[in-house]
Amino acid sequence: MKKYLSYHFPNELKVYASLILASVLTVIAITFFLQISEYSQHIFKTLIAKHPALSFIITPITFVGIIYFAKQYCHFVQGSGIPQLIAATDSRNKSIREKLLSFRVAAGKIGLIFLTMLGGAPIGIEGPSIHIGGSIFYGFNRFLKLNRKFLIHALIAIGGSAGLIVAFNAPIAGILFAYEEIGRNLKKQALILIMMVGLLVYFLEILYHGNQPYLGDFSSYSLDLTLVWQLLPMAIVVGVLGGLFSRMTIYFINKLVANNKTQILVIALCLGMIIALFNYFSKGQIAGSGHTEILQILNHQALGLDFVIMKFFAVLTSFVSTIPGGVFMPSISIGAGIGAEVANFYTQIDMQVVVIMAMIGYLSAVIRAPLTSTFVILEMTMGLHLLIPGLVVAFAANFISKQIYHQPIYEALAEKFSKKASPQPK
Description:
Elements: H1 2-8, H2 13-50, H3 55-73, H4 82-90, H5 94-100, H6 103-118, H7 126-139, H8 141-144, H9 149-168, H10 171-182, H11 190-209, H12 232-255, H13 261-282, H14 291-298, H15 305-321, H16 328-342, H17 351-367, H18 370-380, H19 387-404, H20 409-421
Helix pairs in contact: 2-6, 2-7, 2-9, 2-11, 3-13, 4-5, 4-9, 4-20, 6-7, 7-9, 9-10, 9-11, 10-11, 10-18, 12-15, 12-17, 12-19, 13-15, 14-16, 15-16, 16-17, 17-18, 17-19, 18-19
């Protein structure tokens, strides 16, 4: 037993002290990040609701400035951040990991997401939160100097898990995501250490920020298990749409590779103008993470099919641009919109339950992590009693999505970051 513990857990006291310190710093940093991100998207939405035409000035300039700056000076803060963590855990090369994850990368991510939200981009904060958490925890390895690959990769997965826990107040989902997505190649024993630190982060987050469900309390809504089969047509629809989103994302990212500064600027301007159009027609509604819109939908304020269509293509455009920003919450908002549109066909199931199931299904189809998708949404809505139907929908949508695009989207993007971070032959 002693030999087992010494192999799978750190032996030095300073490692545990650093894990505690990293946990505290992660909670403080991500809470600050969430607050300023919420503030910046609120400013944009308020302004564009009154003056929609301003989106044609603000959004393109934001896309051009941030995409150009990121590509030229801090390439590895681009996108959601989750592919960077996957690439770092897959790599044995220290120089690659330090390019992808560091205190400097975390600070850059916080600053650029603030500006991106201020410019009206339809992005989420969960992927960046995961990237920030992973960067903070791995940043402590400069002092710890861990040499064993097992512990280094576990440290990265712990940081990513912490980021998701703080962002969504979802401890189970955070722990599952670390193992299901970030650390696909980690040994099962790492899950014990991830769980220990994840629970610590959750406890610290409650002390620092409170324990409110991210999307409200829907624990009073239930679903007769004999009606679960009725949700399968919806699971197929969101599975197809999620699979198409992934396939289109990778296709356009490969097609829009820019080789010089002029191309970067032109592509960024064109993509920024597309987002500006959506912001103009929606009066800023498609901007930001979609958190506000999800709350409206769950409270019977239908946003219409036009919201779903615009949000889908706006998020696709933004993600393809590689501008810093996540896809979790925007995907959940698209799923909520789809659920609201099909809820009228379910006379025996509460509208809120249909919406929650659609959110689970669409997110699972996009990120191809059915366990994480189920638990993160049920924890955010206090709906863990809906676990069985949630898992059915998640795995069904995941299966359909897999038929459209076999490789999970984050894995495909992680390969690109691994190549970019690898030392180039002279």
